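Internal QA ticket QA-208
Title: Verify multi-chain structure generation after dependency bump
Assignee: T.L.

Test input:
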Amino acid sequence: MKRTEATFTTADELYSRIDNFLPDGPKWYCKEVTLPEAPNEPQLLFYRNPVECLEFLSQSPAFDGHQDYSPVKHFTEKECTNRVYGEANMADAWHYYPSKIGPKETVNLAFCGSDKTHVTNFSGDGKVHPVYITSAQIRADIPNQPNRRAFLLLCYLPVCKFNKTQYPNVTQARTFPGRLQARLTHACLKIVMEKLKEAGQTAVPMVNFRGECRMNRVFLGGWIADKEEQNLLAALGANSCTGCLAETKDLGDESPCLVSLSISHFIFQFINLVQPRDSKSILQKIQEVKTKFPPSNNIWIFLTECQKAQLSGVDDPFWKDLPHTDICKVICHDTLHGLHKAFKDHTVQWNINRIGEFEIDNRIRRLPKVPGFRHFSGGISKISQWSGKETKDLQRIFLPILTGVQTSEAITATRAELDFIYHAGWKMLGEDDLSRMIDFNKIFHRNKHAFLRTYQHGGRELDHFHIPKLHSRHHYPENIRWLGAPYNYSTEITERYHIEIAKKAYKATNRKNYAEQMLLWLRRQEKVHLRGLFIRWRNGQWNKPSDVDTDTQFDGFLPELPLNEQEDPPQVVSLIVEEPDLIDDLSIVNESLSQPVLKSSHVTNSTEVSHAISRRPHLIRQPLESIMMKYNIPGLETALKIFLIQSSKGVLNPQALRSELQRYGPLSLDWKGLSIWNRCTITLPTVGFEEDHPEKRTILARLKTKKDNTPRFQTVFVDPKPDDPEPQDGIRGKLNFSFVHPRGIPFNDLFY
Amino acid sequence: MPRTRGQKVATETGQNKCPFCGKYFKRLGGHLAKSSACKSQSEKLQKILLQENFGDNNMEEDSNSDIEINFGNEEDILSPQAFPASPNTRPQKRMRPTSPNVFLHSAMSPGPDLFSPVAAPSHLPAGQEPVLHQTDEISDLPSEPFEAEKVFQLYKIEEYPQAGHIFQKNCETIFHKMQSSVDGIYPYKPFFDEEEWSLAEFLATSRLSKGSINTFLNSAWVSPIYLYQNYRLSSDTF
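Actual output:
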């Protein structure tokens, strides 16, 4: 094998070439931030321009064809009563901004996500606080695939304990570092968001991968964070609700902030009690404290008063000047912490309090092993590291476990909560689904007192329901209306990016001044990734736009035609000159089109059921007799013969079949050695919009594995007449083994 | 010849128990091929099962003569058109041809008295009827198709049809800018060619430490010693 040797001999050389020659993504800036109240602890803030990040993202070929630029409202029926919320551009936020800025400009909602995370494993106290940014123009499927790198690191917020600062007394020394940290975070975010604010006031041209330039107005659309950070961002105290004016004592209430509900009798009942919180009310509250106790006089008194007023001690929140932005609507209620983890932390624990750990573990252990359902062979009470996946696995099996030992009220409450969680996990929710979610929540609150009446409880949460996560469920429907389905803004994805951006980067450092080294590492990664994209682009691997509209302008854009490319610059100039006329034309068109256009779209036909099996059979060349004995299916040979007769002569009546069968001799050689598949995957027909990701089910039919001697045979339903419109007339039976395959005969797989 | 590896497993932990002689074997097929007694019993069992399924005990004696006929006609019976194509495509390479198992086609030796009670026909599960052989008795269900499964439809209103307007086309992207800065002779600069770029891409993204990268680059696989002088020179060009 001929091989050319590398022209770099050391790692230093390799890295210096990457650093010096490869082009970079959005630039990094560094700024020293010093809080006036902690003058001897200057902090370094590393950040990027969020607008540059969005420009960079919009040009990436990985998202080509997956971007939406205009708002749209979807309805399930012609009368347009039941609105559907899915992607961000179907939701209200995308309709709100054009009403403020004018209908011509493109709205680009920036979704940020932040989460403070430990980077050290067992020792040390290394923490980083990364903030990620993505554009809501990219459809939600794509940012949820980490390999596409749809989330860019926006900044590392400094994390500081403020150990060097002197505090007035001991109690304040314990509470004030957190307040100072909040002030520092807001001061830093104000610097970072400066450019975003400008881009919200004046439009920025952004080019996408196809070379189409749009005038984008950038707004802060959503902020993906857990509950602690949500309150930090909203400059509120720890237990306040960001959605309404509820404070600690109201968190367990059955029905806060019902103003936003569309059920009329509730509005009249509760409209005077609770009102939704918004940016103005928070700012007003801060202003009240500020005028009485100005922070420039004595910061400590200001902080104490803020604590009393349920504020976090920030006097200048970063979102104050952001145009048309209401921070309370920006904050997303996520599903991972708010629903899944809350289910495990609270509801499961309440049920265990009543039933007892021993009993619930035994019940879980006794469940049969079924594919698709996790079997907790060790019970659940001893699991120490709960991840989101384990919680979801538990949710699937948890409700049946309660049967017989839990009161019916508690079971009703648990079921309502599970229904709520499953509804929130959908990728597309209609107005009817939202009202159902509200109903589920009501059922839960009506029955939640059952968790209190336990005789052997030892949990500390049993005397009250003042839990922020429980309360925040009231706000999911309005959040979905504003930003689309929770799938768009789950914290799971930012947790996943942590591995990439925080954990791996930290491991590449020598643990000293790690922020700079992490950035260097990340920059190199980004450079190499970008160069990889570029090389693929140059080789023409990206040239096929995945959407249907393969218009001719795109072909001219491809790099294979460098002539066109050189002609581009004069064209650009002329177009920019023409721009005012263009806008005039547009406004005329706009007036004529101002009536809502009603047209059907998204007609999805259900696809065929298909199945897939592994390339190689699990057992090959099995003699028929051995199969019949091992699987205890003596009728197999007869069935095979009947199948062969019927495939050659058509379906016969039983009498004719019997006589045929008697004349039929032994099976040919081909049928004597059969290949067997123990499992197969069935792709279910798609219903609705899940065209790209159809559901799959695994069917097992195996005697044993190396580890497990239990035979697994699953019940299947077979529809003998697929063209028949009645889906219910299938026959039910145990799948005995998956496939028989004689050699040399091209035909489809057989089930028995 | 049939498979001869079906040796008897010494202990009782062998996987498969022969229902006729009660011994344990690694492969039952091999055992059946060798032991003519068990073989005949199993064929007897099949015969009885055949009768059991159709309630007909008149097994014709001249079935042996049909064997050859059917054996020859097998390919004709199984025409490819008889079987609808599988939706998923799999490679043509399937299992390798089995060596013909002669004993399986040997003449049945009559002798119903040899039949062992272990595999009595009463053990037949009731649901063992062939799939193709079934009747449709359910007909009282409503016959209109289930709508939601067939078509899922949404109606859309675009309140701001002008949003997302393209102001100009064929703009430069970052890739065009990168293209203009790339050397025409060395498109992979700062690396020599595609191979070297792929190596650099791997090394830079593989989470190897600098020490490991150095060790790798010094390994004989990457830098053969007799080429060392050469490659010093080429490294200076960059």
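Spot checks passed. Residues 1-14, 53-150 of chain B have pLDDT under 50 and may be disordered.
Status: verified.
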